[in-house]
């Protein structure tokens, strides 16, 4: 592993997380139990909703969302190709067909509602909005589109836990919102996730599916409830551990201060990189306060050698990333769906040129200056 001077991501873990884990270890209950329930209540309160279901990871959250909607063969789900692959995977694993839509362009890496609208067919059942990097997708337009066609709106809010925006808290506007608490995410548990749903019946179906669709949970049996249970659906084990949720409670308390620090880093980045010819800072038109800033993406001018730029930054000890390769060009999807280069020109162009710079709570003015300096000195836009 390279010893980076400036990491792309870095979770902030303190003595409080260690103490919380130790407390669980001495409690005698390690899987979803009272700490999980308390984390759910607190996370829901942070979002301003009634309740949430904590799960083992963000992919599980998305899988439970598509299962709860009953999606299957013959159904189509429209989602951006520019996303982490797990959303397309869970749609496909349910037997439904992912239909990939374009993002808006260099200035906005969220899905284009007009392009989504153009892909709606009589088979379409759901739309997926991804809040790329923590920036809100166009929720009013997407919610209106879903309503007009009687479709479910799923928000992949993996990049945006507890993020208020003028159009609502991200993940709570559509029918189902999915969150990830993976090790690199803003709220890091190692592995973890959560689901919220507008309809309490859907939320409780998700809670049931999370634990084998048992009508009586292990905790209830442990507490002396009925020892026999029924199974009323095909469920999975997507429960989180108490250890993860104990870390999550501490991380959740730290989230507002962490969000402030991310915002300050982004303000500094915007100032430091403003002068580079041809460099696009996506979402520059969004108010800094309205994003979770999971990523700090930049889009390089056409013709720039991204790998060479990454190599130069690597030599300076600066870790960068690409978010993401377009899903529709992965072997599994292009062969399954008959897609190829040229199917989604906007997405293909932007994903060739996107680069993520380091962003986490340890990025202060000094680190921003170092990164900006390294980018500037390596900057050789194609002529
Ligand atoms: C991380 C992530 C996921 C998957 O979450 P896991 O917890 O890693 O399973 C899904 N969508 C997006 C946008 C993500 O960033």
UniProtKB/TrEMBL annotation:
Modified residues (N6-(pyridoxal phosphate)lysine): 185
Active-site residues, record numbering mapped to chain: 185
Gene3D superfamilies: Aspartate Aminotransferase, domain 1 (3.90.1150.10), Type I PLP-dependent aspartate aminotransferase-like (Major domain) (3.40.640.10)
A Pfam family the protein falls into: DegT_DnrJ_EryC1
UniProt similarity note: Belongs to the DegT/DnrJ/EryC1 family. L-glutamine:2-deoxy-scyllo-inosose/scyllo-inosose aminotransferase subfamily.
Co-factor requirement: pyridoxal 5'-phosphate
SUPFAM superfamilies registered for this protein in UniProt: PLP-dependent transferases
Keywords: Aminotransferase, Pyridoxal phosphate, Transferase
Protein's name in the database: Lipopolysaccharide biosynthesis protein
GO molecular function: pyridoxal phosphate binding; transaminase activity
Superkingdom of source: Bacteria
GO terms (BP aspect): polysaccharide biosynthetic process
């Amino acid at each position: 592993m390279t010893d980076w001077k400036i990491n792309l991501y870095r979770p902030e873990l303190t003595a409080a997380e260690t103490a919380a884990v130790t407390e669980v270890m001495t409690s005698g209950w390690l899987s979803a139990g009272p700490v999980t329930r308390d984390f759910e209540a607190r996370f829901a309160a942070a979002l301003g909703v009634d309740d949430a279901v904590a799960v083992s990871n963000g992919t599980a959250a998305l899988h439970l969302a598509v299962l709860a909607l009953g999606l299957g063969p013959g159904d189509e789900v429209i989602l951006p190709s520019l996303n982490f692959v797990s959303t397309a995977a869970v749609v496909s694993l349910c037997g439904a067909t992912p239909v990939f839509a374009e993002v808006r362009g260099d200035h906005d890496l969220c899905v284009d509602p007009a392009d989504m609208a153009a892909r709606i067919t009589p088979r379409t059942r759901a739309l997926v909005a991804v809040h790329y990097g923590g920036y809100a997708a166009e929720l009013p337009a997407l919610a209106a589109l879903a309503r007009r066609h009687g479709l479910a709106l799923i928000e992949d809010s993996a990049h945006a836990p507890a993020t208020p925006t003028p159009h609502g808290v991200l993940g709570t506007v559509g029918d189902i919102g999915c969150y990830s608490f993976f090790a690199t995410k803003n709220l890091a548990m190692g592995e973890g996730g959560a689901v919220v749903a507008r309809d309490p019946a859907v939320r409780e179906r998700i809670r049931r599916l999370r634990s084998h669709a048992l009508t009586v949970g292990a905790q209830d049996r442990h507490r002396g409830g009925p020892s026999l249970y029924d199974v009323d659906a095909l469920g999975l084990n997507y429960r989180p551990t108490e250890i993860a949720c104990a870390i999550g409670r501490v991380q959740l308390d730290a989230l507002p201060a962490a969000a402030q620090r991310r915002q300050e880093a982004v303000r500094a980045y915007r100032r430091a990189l403003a002068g580079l010819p041809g460099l696009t800072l996506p979402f520059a038109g969004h108010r800094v306060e309205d994003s979770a800033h999971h990523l700090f993406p930049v889009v390089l001018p056409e013709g720039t050698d991204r790998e060479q730029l990454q190599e130069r930054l690597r030599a300076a000890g600066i870790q960068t990333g690409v978010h993401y390769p377009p899903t529709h060009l992965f072997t599994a999807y292009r062969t399954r769906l008959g897609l190829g280069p040229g199917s989604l020109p906007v997405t293909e162009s932007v994903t060739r040129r996107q680069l993520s710079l380091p962003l986490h709570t340890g990025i202060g003015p000094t680190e921003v200056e170092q990164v900006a300096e390294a980018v500037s000195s390596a900057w050789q836009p194609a002529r």
